[in-house]
Write a structure and sequence with these properties.
single chain, Rossmann fold, 306 residues
Length: 306
């Protein structure tokens, strides 16, 4: 069992660099993050943005971009479109957001001419390492889907399981989180969780072990599960937690990062290629981990296709 997120870069090193479009890298953190991932053997970046701005940023912050391919663009919208085109033709295998708004980049991804949409829902999943907890855990979806329907929750789960498979979890345990561990008809999250659990029992959700509703303490703490006399294949050892909605998932993520000092690797899933949209407040380590996780998912998808 992995104890921290260092394994992400190590696995990438064993697979080799993968081509990645870095969209509008016109800030120090956006450009330095891409160059750091290149230096660590994770990606071979293609910088897509206004050449003059990229050169100015590199000069201002002492960043060496010699030998790195740059594709000129008029602005961030044009950069997003050109990067999506590169991904659509297979020239790059993942997209990394630079200094532009997430909605600008995702708008380009959604355009039919780039052929990046699939039948899958677009959602996010994040692998977390907390120094106070002895297991790594995935959470979803804290970025994209505000109030997911039952059908969308199933697809969020499937994307998260696919992500876990790509990172080395063969049969992850998935807890569908609610405030209580019993079905309460006045609490729709518990009903959805029970339905998804039964779908897994019937083979409609595969590649994982699913149970729900499960409250957070039972999902992560074996002692709580025992005290509550809970009987489940998930007894404080959940690998993936599917939260009821974006607000609860996003709050949990930020609590882990800012109060629990967690390390994170966050990737957008469901398109033909993985997408990294790290926050402006994310540190260099989170950016590197997220890029490495996305690169591993891209390698995994390439193996499946081949």
């Amino acid at each position: 069992m992995e104890k921290n997120l260092d394994f992400l870069v190590k696995k990438c090193n064993s697979l080799g660099k993968i081509a990645a479009a870095v969209v509008h890298p016109c800030s120090d953190v956006a450009l330095s993050g891409a160059l750091k991932a290149r230096e660590r053997g994770v990606i071979e970046p293609v910088l897509v943005g206004p050449v003059a701005e990229i050169n100015d940023t590199a000069s201002k912050y002492g960043l060496d971009i010699s030998g790195v391919r740059i594709i000129d663009s008029k602005d961030d919208v044009d950069a997003a479109a050109k990067a999506a085109s590169l991904a659509g033709t297979g020239e790059v295998k993942l997209l990394i957001k630079g200094s532009l708004h997430t909605d600008v980049m995702m708008h380009a991804v959604m355009q039919p001419e780039y052929n990046l949409r699939t039948h899958k829902l677009i959602s996010s999943s994040c692998l977390m390492h907390l120094p106070t907890y002895d297991r790594l855990v995935f959470i979803a979806d804290m970025v994209i889907n505000i109030a997911p329907t039952l059908e969308q929750k199933v697809q969020i789960l499937e994307n998260a399981v696919d992500f876990a498979h790509a990172l080395g979890w063969e049969n992850p345990k998935v807890a569908i989180i609610a405030a209580v561990e019993t079905v309460n008809l006045k609490m729709p999250a518990t009903v959805d969780a029970a339905i998804i659990s039964k779908m897994a029992d019937r083979g409609q959700v595969t590649g994982c072990i699913v149970d729900g509703p499960i409250d957070l303490d039972i999902a992560v703490d074996p002692t709580s599960a025992q005290i509550k006399h809970f009987k489940s294949p998930i007894m404080g050892d959940a690998d993936i937690m599917i939260l009821p909605d974006l607000q609860s998932a996003n709050a949990l993520y930020k609590q882990m990062v800012f109060m629990g000092k967690a390390d994170a690797a966050d990737v957008i899933l469901g398109a033909r290629i993985p997408i990294v949209v790290t926050s402006r407040s994310d540190d260099e380590e989170t950016r590197l981990n997220s890029i490495a996780a996305a690169a591993l998912h891209a390698h995994y998808k390439n193996r499946i296709i081949q």
